[in-house]
Amino acid sequence: MIANLVQLAAGEEQNPLVPPGPELLVGTIAFAIVFFFFWKKLLPNINKVLEERRAAIEGGIEEAETMKVEAQSVLEQYKAQLAEARHEAARLRQEAQEQGATLIAEMRAEGQRQREEIVAAGHAQIEADRKAASSALRQDVGKLATDLAGKLVGESLEDHARQSRVIDRFLDDLEEKAEAGR
């Protein structure tokens, strides 16, 4: 074949698409050496790098899956804690409402008790004031009645013991008549 190429090259004008024979032979040998070098040296290194890259990618995918599962677990824990916190908040709110209602009831009872004490103290004060007014009125009425009786009789009726007895008896009779009239 090389001989055919050499004859063609010598006999005819050279075709630009067909290289000369010795060049073709040197090119084929060079290609075989480069191919052998790539096949023995570079191809194993390239395969090794590709294998490492594949392992790294697969490891990354596995790690991502593991992290996804872990994240899902953490999310579930978070949701459970959130639900528990909401439940606790609802329980605390309910307790606060119950305590508030109890406190309001206690305050109402205390207010009622204080009101009753104030009313009772008011009644006692009114009764004391009524008795004091009645006593003062008895004395004033007695003095006026004694003075009037003394002016009518023309003598002084200054005997205090007798005067007090007469006035007390007179006022007691008036009170009995007033109570009987009710």
If you had to describe this structure to a student in words, what would you say it looks like?
With 182 residues, the chain is an all-alpha fold. It has one domain (30-181). It is built from 3 helices and no strands. The protein has helices spanning 2-11, 21-153, 160-181. The radius of gyration is 65 Å and the shape is rod-shaped. The mean pLDDT is 83.
In short:
With 182 residues, the protein is an all-alpha fold. The protein is 91% helix and 0% strand. It has one domain (30-181).
What structural class results from the helix and strand content? mainly alpha
Domains, number = 1
Shape: rod-shaped
Overall strand count = 0
| Helix proportion | over 70%
Please state the oligomeric state of the protein chains shown.
single chain
Please tell me the overall pLDDT.
Answer: 83
| Low-pLDDT residue spans | none
Please give the alpha-carbon distance between the first and last residues.
160 Å
- β-sheet strand percentage: under 5%
Transmembrane segments: 24-43
Main location: membrane
Organism: Streptomyces cahuitamycinicus
Coiled coil: 61-102
